[in-house]
Design goal:
The protein is α+β, with helices and mostly antiparallel strands and 365 residues long. Strands 1-14-9-2-3-4-15 form a 7-stranded mixed β-sheet, with helices on both faces. Helix content is 31%, strand content 21%.
């Protein structure tokens, strides 16, 4: 039952003062695809449409990361900085079946990034982790209690389907030494509906893109993309660069920035009905760690990031090189990767050398 605005709201659903209602709308920029954009919009709607709490709150799915991983984790840093693992899941099933661009079956974490918000929370860095990266997967426990043995040279995006989201968090923590404070996952079908709900996103490309696998066919210039074409855009890999995952990371970063701009320019909070419709679609596709699995928690977290502005955000890719055994895969490039993770652990500036990747994917559009 929805709350009657004429009666006092319960303590955990109390409205915010007028001057706070728009605060969660501040955007955080991530390094990869739209995931942080989606989170930003969720925070904005969650902080404003409190009267629709019951309808939206039940949509969000939670994963108890702490319980699944246990104590085998990096220690929490002494600062107030935050680290969030954000995944885009692409199950190739259900609503996603019609969105598939290849014959891949099962769930995959098709997009992954680590967002680091330093102490003070006035800027942010997002590190894209290429899905084709070979990593060492630690021993993990699935949600059903079964154990997945540790393994070496595992492709990063396969961990999600093999052992679940908690194992992806554990793997990232072990390869980086950086503790993830939160986990956010968005299903690609929900992303498609979000783009359609806001009326599309405008992108500009410098060269033609023709990808028979994703179905994307764009000429050089500016285009308004609906949800389906947006998914094709962020999934495209064969139409740019060397056809690897590295080439499309640039497209995904570009699209994410375009989506952020679209959300910022539109008065989404000025129309409660429209905001609710967007939030309903988004929260239905959203999974977070148990600490964030409510609109109240998301809104509170959003308010803590009010000082982060697009001009203070940076996107980079985890430095990688082509694997010597399988050139179709990449591995972390050293010493750059270690320098990058060390900077995030200690909340210090990332060296310029740590932002350069030996493997580039042959460029992007």
């Amino acid at each position: 039952m929805r709350h009657d605005p004429s009666t006092p709201a319960p303590p955990d659903r109390r409205s915010r003062p007028d001057d706070e209602r728009g605060a969660p709308k501040r955007k955080r920029r991530t390094g990869r695809i739209v995931l942080l954009s989606l989170l930003a919009l969720t925070l904005a709607v969650g902080g404003t449409a409190y009267w629709l709490y019951d309808d939206l709150d039940s949509n969000i799915k939670g994963v108890d990361i702490d319980k699944a991983i246990g104590d085998d984790r990096p220690g929490k840093p002494p600062t107030s900085g935050q680290n969030i693992l954000i995944l885009g899941s692409d199950s190739r099933a259900g609503a996603n079946a019609s969105l598939a661009d290849d014959d891949v079956s099962g769930a995959r974490s098709d997009t992954a990034l680590v967002m680091h918000i330093p102490e003070g929370r006035t800027r942010a860095v997002a590190v894209s982790v290429p899905r084709d990266t070979l990593v060492s997967r630690p021993e993990c426990t699935r949600s059903d209690g079964s154990t997945v043995a540790a393994a070496g040279r595992v492709m990063f995006n396969s961990i999600y389907s093999q052992a679940g989201p908690a194992c992806v968090v554990k793997t990232v923590e072990q390869i980086s030494g950086v503790r993830m404070d939160h986990y956010v996952e968005i299903d690609f079908a929900g992303f498609k509906e979000l783009v359609d709900a806001i009326g599309g996103v405008t992108v500009t490309v410098e060269r033609d893109i023709h990808d028979s696998s994703s179905g994307l066919d764009l000429t050089a210039g500016t285009h308004r993309l609906d949800g389906t074409r947006s998914l094709q855009f962020v999934r495209t890999r064969h139409g740019i660069g060397d056809g690897s995952d590295l080439g499309r990371i640039g497209l995904q970063q570009r699209f994410m920035l375009a989506l952020l701009s679209e959300i910022k320019e539109q008065d989404l909070l000025g129309s409660p009905t429209r905001s609710y419709r967007i939030a309903d679609k988004l929260t239905s596709a959203l999974t977070t760690d148990s600490d964030l699995a409510s609109l109240t928690a998301l809104a509170e977290f959003g308010r803590s990031l009010n000082g982060v502005a697009p001009s203070t955000m940076e996107t980079i890719m985890l430095p990688v090189r082509y694997d010597r055994v399988d050139p179709n895969r990449v591995v972390a490039a050293e010493p750059q990767a270690s320098q990058l993770w060390r900077a995030l652990r200690h909340d210090t500036a990332i060296p310029e050398s740590a932002k350069k990747s030996p493997a580039t994917g042959g460029g992007s559009a």
